[in-house]
Amino acid sequence: MNYKEIVKDVLLTESKELEKSANSVSFDIENIIDLIIQSKGKLIVTGVGKSGLVGAKIAATLASTGTSSFFLHPTEAMHGDLGMISKDDIVLGISYSGESEELIQILPHLKRLNIPLISMAKSENSTLAKYSDYFINIAVEKEACPLDTAPTSSTTLTMAMGDALAVCLMKKRDFKKEDFASFHPGGSLGKKLFIKIADLLKKENLPIVSRETKLKDAIIVMSEGRVGSVIIVDENQKVIGILSDGDLRRALMKPNFSIDCNIEDIATMNPKTFDDENLLASDALQIIENYKIQLLVVTDKNKKLVGLLHIHDLIEAGIK
């Protein structure tokens, strides 16, 4: 049995169903987005079985991208949790058949409460669709399972449709990376999107020297500073140069090298600096990698030294 061919067939089958749906979008997405955006309440996702599992993921995606949302199981709703739905909320009901008994049972109660209903099902003639204010078609021609019965292509399409809905809402809200970060303050994702260089910047006991400093004295400052460089400033504390360990190694290779020379004779003058402390740490790491440097020199708008950020500080903070 060639399992690689089976994997390939499953992926191609599901991708074809996604492509078919993408080429035949006919539901009223503009009014659906406007309805959700203008709502003062939450978007509550509900469904049972595989549709419920997919619905829980859709609700999580919506909640993390700026749309207040949670998943409500229809059975729990019939046993008291219907009270979690307020008059300003909207319900997104998911059932591939459109006839899931547990979900159908709560529909009259939603109508009684005048709760707007968006549905995802395979047929506009289904009970769920007929109760709905807006219907999103998630019909597929072929499930990826060999019996053409287990929800595979259909759940993939439902998941993708939920993603499309979330992305439309993000675009409508002009949802930015910084907004996303505020919803993910913990873990590696939060570190990447939330931590700014101001949170990691070294501002005290900086390795600073003047342009007249002799190289032998600068080396001592470099060793004590433990960032592999010294920063050259003028009398107003403005950054005018940097001496890195790389500059020092290159100077050592020259035949006329003298440890008694002035630091500016071998340093990199007018180095690249950055004046935005609110720069995301992940962006700072990208800059460091692009410029092939190890140290980010941060100044104010007048080029006065504010602090230093070493690549090791980013790595230790878990920025990747």
From TrEMBL:
Domain SIS, residue spans: 32-175
Annotated site residues (Catalytically relevant) in this chain: K50, E102, E143, H184
**Origin, by domain of life?**
Bacteria
Q: Keywords, A to Z? A: CBS domain, Isomerase, Metal-binding, Repeat, Zinc
Question: Which GO molecular function annotation, any one, does this entry have?
Answer: carbohydrate derivative binding
CDD domains in the record: CBS_pair_SIS_assoc (cd04604), SIS_Kpsf (cd05014)
**From its record, what is one biological process in GO terms?**
carbohydrate derivative metabolic process
Q: Which PANTHER family match?
A: ARABINOSE 5-PHOSPHATE ISOMERASE KDSD, PTHR42745
What's this protein's family per the entry? Answer: Belongs to the SIS family. GutQ/KpsF subfamily.
What name does the UniProt record give this protein? KpsF/GutQ family sugar-phosphate isomerase
> What organism does this protein naturally occur in?
Aliarcobacter vitoriensis
